[in-house]
Amino acid sequence: MDPDFEELSHDTEIIAKIKQLRDVTLRIEDTMKLATHPEIYEKLSNTDKIQYNLLMSYCLNSMFWMYLRTEGIDPTKHRIKMENDRLKKCMTHAKQINDRNLPIRRLNKDAAQRFIRNGLWEMKNKT
C-alpha cells in the first residue's frame, strides 16, 4: 500500500474523531445552557436540587475528563478520577436517602385476616 495513502487514511480518521468530539461538546454546551436558567432551578424541590447539582458536577467533571484525554493525559491517574468516584458515592447516598423517604406501605393485619378467613370459608352441609 502507498505510504501517502496510509497517512491520508489516518488523517481522515483523526479529523472524523475531532468532528465527533466537537459535535458532542456543542450538544453538551447547549444542554448546559438550557439547564442553568435560575428560574428553572428555583422551582425545583430540595431533592431535585440535590440531583441537579450532582448531575451538573458530574457533567463538568466528564467534560474535564474528555479534555484530559484530548491533551494525552491519562485521566485515571489524575485527581479527577477521585472526584468522579466521590460524586458517584454522593449520588448513591442521595438515592438511598430518597428511597428512605418514600412512603412505606404497611400491611393492615385485620383486613388481611378477614380476606384469608373469608377465602377459606366453606358452606356447612345442609341437613
TrEMBL record:
GO terms for molecular function: DNA binding; RNA binding. Plays a role in the recruitment of the exosome to pre-rRNA to mediate the 3'-5' end processing of the 5.8S rRNA. It comes from Habropoda laboriosa. Monomer and homodimer. Pfam families: Sas10_Utp3. InterPro entries: Exosome-assoc_fac/DNA_repair (IPR011082), Sas10/Utp3/C1D (IPR007146). It is found in: Cytoplasm; Nucleus, Nucleolus; Nucleus. Keywords: Cytoplasm, DNA-binding, Nucleus, RNA-binding, rRNA processing. One of its GO terms (biological process) is maturation of 5.8S rRNA. The keyword DNA repair does not apply. This is Nuclear nucleic acid-binding protein C1D. GO terms for cellular component: cytoplasm; exosome (RNase complex); nucleolus. Belongs to the C1D family. Its main location: cytoplasm. It comes from the Eukaryota.
